[in-house]
Amino acid sequence: HAMQIAERLYTSGYISYPRTETTQYAENADLKSVLRELTHCSDSDWQTHIKSLLSEGQYTTPKRGKDVGDHPPITPVKAASSAAVGGGDYWRIYDYVCRHFI
């Protein structure tokens, strides 16, 4: 059930491709822009945390992960509200992806 939801979030443009085992971001990935995008999520409680990461210089490059060569790690792509993604389990999965990314 969770993978079906993740695939719908992917096809709707909210997260990157969900079928991956890769946990390492490319060196040229613009992760700060993803964080800036997530500050526009109206139903989340992480905007304040993200803003402090970006404005107070607390942002650090993610630790090296594992690159299995298929797709980049699952990453939020655009800001959303609970209603926009479909609420319920759709919001829970989207929220989880965002929290894990942050």
From TrEMBL:
Key words, A-Z: DNA-binding, Isomerase, Topoisomerase
Enzyme's top EC category: isomerase
UniProt name for this protein: DNA topoisomerase
The enzyme's E.C. designation: 5.6.2.1
Keyword Chaperone: no
Biological-process GO terms, alphabetical: DNA recombination; DNA repair; DNA topological change
Gene3D superfamilies: Topoisomerase I, domain 4
Topo IA-type catalytic domain boundaries: 1-102
Pfam families the UniProt entry points to: Topoisom_bac
Primary role: Introduces a single-strand break via transesterification at a target site in duplex DNA. Releases the supercoiling and torsional tension of DNA introduced during the DNA replication and transcription by transiently cleaving and rejoining one strand of the DNA duplex. The scissile phosphodiester is attacked by the catalytic tyrosine of the enzyme, resulting in the formation of a DNA-(5'-phosphotyrosyl)-enzyme intermediate and the expulsion of a 3'-OH DNA strand.
PANTHER family registered for this protein in UniProt: DNA TOPOISOMERASE 3-BETA-1, PROKARYOTIC DNA TOPOISOMERASE
Keyword check for Hydrolase: no
Catalysis performed (reactions): ATP-independent breakage of single-stranded DNA, followed by passage and rejoining
GO cellular component, one term: nucleus
Family: Belongs to the type IA topoisomerase family.
A GO molecular function held by the record: DNA binding
